[in-house]
Amino acid sequence: MSGAGRPVGLAEVTAAAQVLAGVTSTTPLVRSDALDGQLGAELRCKAESLQRTGSFKLRGAYHALHRLGAAARQRGVVAFSSGNFAQAVACAAHLLGTSATVVMPHDAPAAKVAATRFWGAEIVGYDRYTQDRDAIATELARHRDAPLVPPFDDPDVIAGQGTVALELLEQAGELDLLVVPVGGGGLAAGCVAAVAELAPGVEVVGVEPAGRPAARRALQQREVVRLEVPTTLLDGQQTTHVGDHPLRVLLDRITVVGVEDESVVAALRAAVEQLHLVLEPSGASALAAVLDGTVPVAGRRVGIVLSGGNIDAARLAQLL
């Protein structure tokens, strides 16, 4: 990607917001008096599940494809994703008048596969536990002479994802704490880039699956740490590592905790019953860490990113 090596700060996130104006939705903040009373806090939940394509990912995907320029986009684009970024790239390619090929795991949720196809993308399947999606996508891009758009390890993607925090801060006013999911780190890094300059007093906490300590270890060791693909309900956070670009932004600016699958299921139920929202497991991970006490919030005004809602009804019913 053209942005390799560039830092990401508030200026880049603000510029991305200008590109995304009229393309992505300004998603609402949702509140629950019951949850506030239960926790003794004021929660401001950013409903990215209501974003176009059902998650925050369109922000980074569209911004990255837009930044490629028309000439590069004419050759089509290649991406890899467990689902939400796949949909986002497919939609962005459609909106920008080009084609997309996306490498997706065979066990990707059916709703995410169907939505990716809806936007006209070609899907190339792989086994997430035995095959390297990066290598497959890189070879496809080389063979087709097409740009490769990474799902998180790219400054243009990070800047686009950071518009979530830009909107949240404008909507919520003063915050004490921002809690955000961490997979590959693009969303967390974009949010940190915005918050660090706009509201430096706000603490940022990231949440990853308990059984996938990739972000926690990377922050501790101050380098990218690659793990085996974890077994978790949080399919959007089954990445083996946090990207190099996100890690540069996150170092010394974020604390990351792990959340158990059981807590996520409880958060899915709370989202339905108290927030009147449908979330996917990864989309509820930040909320789960707040509700189960992993992230203490009493007496604080807290922003929580609900990152996505792409789950089919049968699967949600089964989990609940």
What brief labels describe this structure?
globular; alpha/beta; 6-stranded mixed beta sheet; single chain; 320 residues
What does this structure look like?
With 320 residues, this protein is an alpha/beta fold. The protein has helices at 10-20, 33-39, 57-68, 70-73, 84-95, 110-118, 133-144, 155-161, 163-172, 186-198, 214-221, 244-250, 261-275, 285-291, 313-319; strands at 29-30, 42-47, 77-80, 100-105, 122-126, 148-149, 177-181, 203-209, 255-259, 301-306. Strands 1-2-10-7-8-9 form a 6-stranded mixed beta sheet, sandwiched between helices. A 4-stranded parallel beta sheet has the order 5-4-3-6, with helices on both faces. Helix 10 (186-198) links the parallel strand 7 and strand 8. Helix 3 (57-68) packs across helix 5 (84-95), helix 8 packs across helix 10 and helix 10 runs parallel beside helix 12 (244-250). It is globular.
Give the helix/strand layout.
Layout: H1 10-20, E1 29-30, H2 33-39, E2 42-47, H3 57-68, H4 70-73, E3 77-80, H5 84-95, E4 100-105, H6 110-118, E5 122-126, H7 133-144, E6 148-149, H8 155-161, H9 163-172, E7 177-181, H10 186-198, E8 203-209, H11 214-221, H12 244-250, E9 255-259, H13 261-275, H14 285-291, E10 301-306, H15 313-319
Parallel strand pairs: 2-10, 3-4, 3-6, 4-5, 7-8, 7-10, 8-9
Antiparallel strand pairs: 1-2
Helix pairs in contact: 1-8, 3-5, 3-8, 5-6, 8-10, 9-10, 10-12, 13-14
